[in-house]
Amino acid sequence: MYRTISVKLANKEELEHFLELLPKYVGIDYYAIVRGTNVYIQLSGSPAEIKRAVAAVKTIVGIARARLKPVRSYPLEVIFKEGEVESPVPPDVLVDYLAARGFTAKLKGGEIATDASLERIKEALAELSKAYKALEGMAVSPHAKRVVAVYMALTKSRPKEALERLTAGGLLSKGQVYSLAVDLQTAKRRLRALVGKK
User: What is the pLDDT of residue 69?
Assistant: First the structure.
């Protein structure tokens, strides 16, 4: 059985990414013709195989359009050994920072799974470490410190300025110590909105 489907991509970069992924996802015989940014694909196989291949093509189009970068895992030991650390940084704060910068980032055991490069992760660690160092000795609760450090690293702001802005933004409350005015997850969401990342 044969079936022909057509795909339109926005530009040459998307087209190249799509063509690169096509043989990795489509597990049956196919023939592709490219005209401009249009791709005409003739699929050959059983009805079930063609159905799977059509679904795979749709997935590839989504990946190409989103320009998704591959997610890699980096051992925390390597990151912290190679990075510049002035003051200790909790690994999940590093993940929060990367997520706020628009990267995919998750902790998996002793590794960070992210689409950020190792260099970018090490830069993030250095920024966060400077922020934690600057916050040493200040009256800030541990949970609040996580949010303040990420904000400082993202905006390159000083501790006092960051504390004032986050208090004004409703993320922190000021008592004997600065503490979170909301739960940690809400604070993380609001922080991303505050720095322009949804």
Answer: 62
